[in-house]
Design brief:
The protein contains 11 helices and 19 strands. The protein is α/β, with parallel strands linked by helices and about 375 residues long. It has 2 domains: about 120 residues, 3-Layer(aba) Sandwich (Rossmann fold); about 180 residues, Dihydrodipicolinate Reductase, domain 2, CATH 3.30.360.10. The strands form 4 sheets. It has an 8-stranded mixed β-sheet with strand order 12-11-7-10-9-8-18-19. The chain has a 7-stranded mixed β-sheet with strand order 3-2-1-4-5-6-17, sandwiched between helices. The radius of gyration is 20 Å and the shape is globular. The protein starts with 7 loop residues before the first strand and ends in a 9-residue tail after the last strand.
Length: about 375
């Protein structure tokens, strides 16, 4: 690409599954005229750069984010490897989008937030469920139209297959189903109920499937999260649907009860079924199925050279915002930190069997506090 004045230069850090989506979408965006790819694996970076027609690729994150050709940065590294490239990106003062969760510890999250504040960086976190039509419309009815009155509580559950769960844990061994997939719904609840602050988590977990395969993670976790306005949400998650279950992403339900209405969302994906003697390839892991639920990949799907779904809409919105000033409701870093505090509290409550209070700085017992805005 030839660099044009007033156009956007993008650096994508991480050449994995989501980084590939973000890079392809950036390359296709009318406002982007410089694209750089970075990955610690030189072969992965070079391959992705060639695929999307990037201007440059490298294994040196510090150099590419500091380049004068780069205006904005996307960090799409594995969950366990967000902090180091994030700090490098933030040091440049350039707007940055990072995949969810923000980090895997509150200590790292606070370090990242402090750096973003010091540099004045608009740091956003890719909780792409905010760009799924069904959830965005539901949130609009709750917050702007008040169709269900005051929220009094609800439930959310999300399940992944064992094959997907093992792929996640292989790259990030501490990315429990609570921190990696239930986190979407913790963020969604915060988005739908912006004035309610999470204050306590109670949880139980168990199971032997993942542990029998060498992962120090329970198969199922069930939790109750209480908020300071009296709202209570019941949350459930698991990585242990059978590997052959025909989804390539989450199977989910989301229900919100209000004083004058209710919202019930079914995202189990049984509405789009393919059966093929020739076989269907799971886009997330190396699997072949005869029966598949199409459209179940959480990030979205490519068809005819166009990506459809939440990651596509989120990425385009972020690029539009930085080229044309379009609206943006991608999760802020402060919101993502609160979500992280909730998921860590759930995991702690499940591990200890005791209620855990959710605090601004950390989750602890016996001292009440509330998260940052």
């Amino acid at each position: 690409m030839e660099r044009l004045a007033g156009r956007l230069g993008v650096a994508v850090i991480g050449a994995g599954k989501i980084g590939r989506h973000r890079a392809r979408l950036s390359a296709a965006h009318a406002g982007v005229d410089h694209l750089a790819i970075a990955d610690v694996n030189a072969s992965a970076a070079e391959t992705l750069a060639a695929e999307v027609g990037a201007d440059t690729w490298t294994t040196k994150v510090d150099e590419v984010v500091a380049s004068s050709d780069v205006d904005v940065i996307i960090v799409s590294t594995p969950e366990r490897a967000h902090t180091e490239p994030l700090l490098a990106a933030l040091a440049t003062g350039k707007p940055t989008l990072v995949e969810k969760p923000l980090t895997l510890t509150l200590e790292d999250a606070d370090m990242v937030l402090a750096e973003a504040a010091e540099r004045g960086v608009d740091l956003r976190v890719g909780y792409s469920m905010r760009y799924a039509q069904r959830y965005a419309v539901a949130r609009d009815q709750i917050v702007n139209h008040r169709s269900i009155g005051d929220v009094i509580g609800g439930t959310a559950r999300c399940y992944d297959t064992l094959a997907i769960g093992e792929a996640i844990l292989a790259r990030s061994p501490t990315a429990t189903p609570v921190k990696d997939i239930l986190t979407y719904f913790v963020d969604l609840i915060g988005w739908c109920c912006p004035d309610a602050r999470p204050v306590e988590a109670v949880a139980r977990s168990g199971g032997s499937i993942l542990r029998s395969k060498g992962h120090d993670v329970d198969d199922v976790t069930f939790a109750l999260v209480a908020y300071d306005d009296g709202t209570v949400f019941n949350l459930a998650t698991s990585y242990s649907l059978p590997s052959g279950y025909p989804i390539s992403g989450m199977a989910a339900r989301f229900e919100v009860l209000g004083t004058s209405g209710v919202l019930l969302i079914d995202e189990d994906h049984g509405d789009q079924v393919l059966y093929s003697d020739a076989g269907y390839s799971n886009a997330y892991v190396d699997q072949q199925w005869n029966l598949a639920y199409l459209g179940s990949r959480t990030s979205g799907e490519w068809a005819g050279g166009t990506m459809f779904g939440r990651v596509a809409d989120e990425t385009r919105a972020w690029l539009d915002h930085h080229t044309m000033g379009g609206p943006l409701h991608i999760t802020t870093a402060a919101e993502a930190r609160t979500t992280l505090a909730v998921t860590l509290a759930i995991d702690e409550a499940a591990a200890t069997g005791r209620p855990v209070e959710i605090c601004a700085g950390r989750s602890q017992h016996g001292e009440r506090s509330t998260p940052d805005d």
